[in-house]
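User: Can you model how flavin-adenine dinucleotide sits in this protein?
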Amino acid sequence: MDVTVVGSGPNGLAAAVTCARAGLSVRVIEAQPTPGGGARSAPDPEYPGVIHDVCSAVHPLAYASPFFRAFGLADRVTLNVPEISYANPLPGRPAALAYHDFERTCAELTDEASWRWLLGPMVQRSDAATAFVLGDK
Ligand SMILES: Cc1cc2nc3c(=O)[nH]c(=O)nc-3n(C[C@H](O)[C@H](O)[C@H](O)COP(=O)(O)OP(=O)(O)OC[C@H]3O[C@@H](n4cnc5c(N)ncnc54)[C@H](O)[C@@H]3O)c2cc1C
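Assistant: Here's the modeled complex, given as structure tokens:
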């Protein structure tokens, strides 16, 4: 065995795939009963038949990631993209909802214009923002 990767979360599996693609023999050791680390889903212990994300649930950069692009994720895995990506409950007020649609998200938030001003440039120039966040330069 050339390489042992400890942990089968997204980073461990990315490392394992990278090593395997380089021609190395790889084994992945995982302490939990199922692989995936924080990105895995598991049956809910209290509600039989319900499977939910144990940790991370929203992956807006998955298809944009240089690693996953090279891995061909979009051809291998279909990610569910719900209309509402997530919601932030607020005490005594309606929850803040993050829609897949940026304009709709801003339109329902207090200080709509401020959110559009803050996040709009990153949406309009998402390729540049993604390269900055996920790049190594
Ligand atoms: C509550 C929460 C919500 C999140 N939500 C999001 C989200 O919505 N979107 C998003 O993109 N990111 C989210 N994240 C972040 C995301 O989960 C992490 O960035 C990602 O899981 C990190 O991957 P990783 O491979 O580095 O580590 P992990 O996913 O933590 O994987 C590490 C793995 O190593 C195993 N391990 C550790 N030590 C050993 C050992 N000694 N022997 C064997 N196995 C071992 C663990 O069991 C685990 O499976 C969230 C994180 C948290 C905590």
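A couple of observations from the model: Residues 58-137 form one domain. The chain has two domains: 1-57, 58-137.
User: Helpful, thanks.
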